[in-house]
Amino acid sequence: MNLVNLESVSHAYGPKPLLSEVSLGVEAGERIGVVGRNGGGKTTLLSVIAGDVRPDSGRVTHTRGLRVGFLSQQDLLDPSHSVRETVLGELAEHEWAGDQRVREILGNLIGDLDLDAKAGDLSGGERRRTALARLLIGEHDLIMLDEPTNHLDIEAIAWLAAHLAGRKSALVVVTHDRWFLDAVSTRTWEVVDGKVERYEGGYAAYVLAKAERARIAQAAEERRQNLMRKEIAWLRRGPPARTSKPKFRIDAAQALIANEPPPRESVELMRFAAARLGKTVYDLEDVTLHAGGPDAGPQVLDHCTWQFGPGDRIGLIGVNGSGKSSVLRLLADTIKPDAGRVVRGKTVRLAHLSQELAELDPTRRVLETVESVRKYIQVGKKEWTASQLLERLGFKGEAQWKVVGDLSGGERRRLQLLRLLMDDPNVLLLDEPTNDLDIETLNELEDLLDAWPGTLILVTHDRYFLERVTDRCVALLGDGRLSFLPGGVDEYLERRAAGTAVTARVAGTTGQPAVQSANQTAQPAPQTASSSSDTATGLSAKEERELRKELNRLERQLDKLSGQEAKLHAAMAEAASDYAKLGSLDAQLRDIHTQKDTVEAEWLDLADRLGD
């Protein structure tokens, strides 16, 4: 049953048509992710579906009695109301306190807030979370969310995805968080050039289907061009000789995913990075750090020793307020440690993208602002002009001649990031670089970073971007340590859920932290694997043989899982147009990845015990 129907809907702001003759429907229980360029009409589409905006033409029909919950990007909270009044309304305390569902929503979204605080005294992020909690507590047939993951950390985003997946309500969500899209949506709508293109499946299936459409369109264009060339030749020479038609026997998905190289040439990038940086990038030696200065504010690091090496790509994870930005400021030398020292390599050329927008001359043009840093830059093996990089990050054509003062917050952030890259750094510290970037721009940024040789330390709540551009994860778990996570974000969520803050000790491996507890005597992190502590000391010959036997078994298991993974990829290639089967295969592939992560973590633990 359709809850909402749009028939030939058109709407424009000024001369730009955002929706043009759009007809579509939202069915009961359907979960739809909406993607598209910033300013392309996504928010307008949601507002039209919700009934908040009346279209210029066409008709929008809601089923009788439809209950719609809409989280817009506008702040509609009454500043005079308390958090309790805003979220819980007239519910008595015994009513909501006895409801597990309500307690779960409150705990995961606003558990850190005082329920008696006034909404007007909250920060923008706190108000946003309060509005989301209010919506989720209500009962709705259709939930519509415009950028719901803004101001949520990775843990809260994972909870929200699971919560929405468990509700019976239909869902339409606009988000640039690609992991979240895959977790919650079963269909994808792309708003582009006033139209809404529809795809089955979440983000991964959307990317595959869109690439397949592009391949088919390219093949059709090649056939058309070939026919045109023959026609021109016939006009010039007379009747043409009989020719056979070209045969297109390309397997769609196989052409897309078979024999694809990895996103980054890691070995080559590491070699370039080492040439630019030498052996030392950052060494933290017995560092203690409080977020507000010596003995002020929450403690971030407690007698921590840690090492960064050339070419490391590290994702720094933690809940809001855990001190991630403080660690980046420590590395950027904008704050000092309370105790211990930070050793920086002599060749470090740093670029730090903070959450605050840098001061830009509001009277200058966009292109001039970038060219004032540098007009050309070498990224990987290719030289780019400032104009070409601006185009890749969304400043196309006339947009490069806009005055900086007229740019939106998201555009200023893109400009700030590009200026940093143009300065040719060899160390990048990025604090929430994906804020206000649409998916196409994120794809371009990821591609640029793939070819960039240097050390990258990233803080972001965008799980997809984190896993895409980094090679390993480190977490701040509130125990004063930097905890290496062999299992990445999944391991972080498991540790948080279990309430543990156990640190994986992987000493001597470049980019992996060697840490001590507060009551241990800190030693400088070893420089190479050969100088790491002998963790096998104390093992008998029999015990070592047994451990190595188990290590070999795990390696065989990894090989077996890799073989199963390859077969699933081949099966997915054959089922590229069967989205039901593709979804089933994708679930199997995720299970294989989970098993591989577990086995790899066990392998790392054994290798550590053996001192390998």
Task: Give the gist of this structure.
This protein is an alpha/beta fold. It contains 19 helices and 20 strands.
Strand and helix map with partners:
Elements: E1 2-13, E2 16-27, E3 31-35, H1 42-50, E4 57-62, E5 68-71, H2 83-88, H3 93-97, H4 100-110, H5 124-137, E6 142-146, H6 154-165, E7 170-174, H7 178-184, E8 187-192, E9 195-200, H8 203-237, H9 252-257, H10 266-277, E10 282-290, E11 299-308, E12 313-317, H11 324-331, E13 339-344, E14 350-353, H12 366-371, E15 376-379, E16 382-385, H13 386-392, H14 409-422, E17 427-431, H15 439-450, E18 455-459, H16 463-469, E19 472-475, E20 483-485, H17 488-498, H18 541-574, H19 579-610
Parallel strand pairs: 3-7, 3-8, 5-6, 6-7, 12-18, 12-19, 14-17, 17-18
Antiparallel strand pairs: 1-2, 1-4, 8-9, 10-11, 10-13, 15-16, 19-20
Helix pairs in contact: 4-5, 18-19
Give Rg in angstroms: 27 Å
Quickly give the structural class: alpha/beta
- Major sheet, described briefly? 6 strands, mixed
According to CATH, the fold-level topology of the largest domain is Rossmann fold
Based on Cα principal axes, name the global outline.
globular
The DSSP helix count reads 19
**Domain module count:** 5
Question: Strand content of the residues, in percent?
Answer: 15-25%
CATH superfamily of the largest domain: P-loop containing nucleotide triphosphate hydrolases
**Uncertain runs:** 237-259, 500-536
Strand order of the largest sheet: 5-6-7-3-8-9
Second CATH tier, the architecture of the largest domain: 3-Layer(aba) Sandwich
Distance between the termini: 60 Å
Number of strands: 20
